[in-house]
Amino acid sequence: MGTASAAGLLLGFGLDRVLGDPRRGHPVAGFGSAAMRVERVTYRDSRAAGVVHEVVLVGAVTGLGIGLRRAVSGRAGRNGRRRGDVTVAGALGEVVVTAAATWTVLGGTTLAKTGREMADRLESGDIEGARALLPSLCGRDPEALDADGLARAALESIAENTSDATVAPLFWGAVVGVPGLLAYRAINTLDAMVGYRNERYERFGWAAARTDDVANLAPARLSGLLTTTLAPVIGGRPADAWRAWRRDAGKHPSPNAGVAEASMAGALGVTLGGRTEYQHGIEMRPTLGDGPVPRVPDLRRAVRLSEAVQVATALAAAAAAYLRR
Predict the structure, then answer these.
(1) Phi, psi of 16, deg, nearest 5
(2) Which residues, 6 or more positions from 234, have their beta carbon under 8 angstroms from its beta carbon?
(3) What 3-state DSSP class applies to 283?
(4) Crossing angle for the helix pair 147-162 and 296-323, nearest 10 degrees?
(5) What is the largest CA-CA distance in the chain?
(6) According to the model, what pLDDT value does residue 84 have?
(7) CB atoms < 10 A from the CB of 213, how many?
(8) What SS3 class is residue 140?
(9) What angle do CA 106, 147, 166 make, to 5 degrees?
(10) Strands, E, within 227-268: which ranges?
(11) How far apart are CA 72 and CA 207, in angstroms?
(12) By the 8 A CB rule, do 194 and 208 touch?
């Protein structure tokens, strides 16, 4: 059923491009609410409790994906025994289920739209409006940032979340199908909820953070490879992106965000990192790339490169799913 899976991935990607995230009733938001309720039961200040929390929630979502896949396969198999082949109805069912799951887990269109809106507000001098928008992109303290700081924060978020919001879910969708799509989004959502190094989650969130690191190892490098290859789309040089990736990615505290941000910095010809202000305090991040600090035009270029990477990933994922037959 590789053809149906490939078609479903492309259709789901197309739905995300046209519709973006639903304003109400988003399944990922529903999962987050359920995870908060489960946390009231599972929370203990220990790694073991965090492992239980991760296994219960990711396992439930993965089981849902497996159940959906089996339901479609069972229907195709029953009809196939009568007709000697997989039926059109069975293939159509897989397309629909895969497309719906893909649209549910992708967030690249909303990411790019928010990046462009941030650039619009900064260009018009609406600093307060830009500060109000920043929390939808990242966890920086917007009140501490000027226009250039807001542009840098948004650009770094675009770089990292291109991988998290599009490349990684499509990668796992191509490799595992619907269970991979749903499991990845559950893993990434739990990391965003509890994967912090603060007093409450230092131990409880350890499993969520480490699982997210493992799930993103391959996708982040695919994202870096595509960012490097597609650098000419925004006037960059692949050699500069590759050099920044190889030289600077390892400096970043995240094994995956460093790849995405360093390759983007090299492609844009800017320097990312440095003093970074969060609500919980100040971090001195290593510098990535060469060149000036990013400004608003660089944010627009980053959005264009992000969209190019997303399209290339969708095509590659569909090809991989087709060959997975």
Answers:
(1) -65, -40
(2) 267, 268, 301, 302, 304, 305
(3) strand
(4) 0
(5) 67
(6) 45
(7) 17
(8) strand
(9) 10
(10) none
(11) 32
(12) yes
- The structure tokens listed for 120 are 């619009």
Question: Can you tell me which residue has the tokens 């944010």?
Answer: 299
147-162 vs 257-268: helix crossing angle, rounded to 10 = 120
Residue in the structure block whose two tokens are 């990242």: 138
Amino acid in the structure at residue 126: D
The two three-digit tokens of residue 231, written as one number = 């650098």
Residue 290: count of CB within 10 angstroms of its CB: 15
- Closest C-alpha to 299, from 128, 113, 134, 118: 118
Asked if 294 contacts 152 with a C-beta cutoff of 8 angstroms, the reply is yes
- Measured between alpha carbons, how far is residue 154 from residues 86, 98, 134, 150, 247 in Å? 47, 31, 7, 6, 23
pLDDT along the chain (325 residues), means of 10: 90 94 84 96 97 97 93 62 58 91 95 95 94 87 84 93 96 96 97 90 96 97 98 97 96 92 97 72 79 93 98 97 84
What residues does each domain of the chain span?
Answer: 2-323
3-state helix, strand, coil in the chain (%, to 5): 75, 5, 20
**Spatial distance between the Cα atoms of 219 and 212, rounded to a whole number of angstroms:** 11
Distance CA 91, CA 72 (A): 8
Decide the pairing of beta strands 281-288 and 272-278.
antiparallel
Rounded distance between C-alpha atoms, residue 102 and residue 180, angstroms: 10
CB neighbours of residue 163 within 10 Å = 31
Length of the chain (residues):
325
Residue 125's closest CA among 147, 96, 143, 104? 147
The pair of structure tokens assigned to 258 is 């460093």
Distance of alpha carbon 203 from alpha carbon 197, whole angstroms? 8
What 3-state DSSP class applies to 286?
A: strand
What are the start-end ranges of the E strands in 175-312? 272-278, 281-288
Phi, psi (deg, nearest 5) at residue 288 = -125, 130
* 3-state secondary structure at position 278: strand
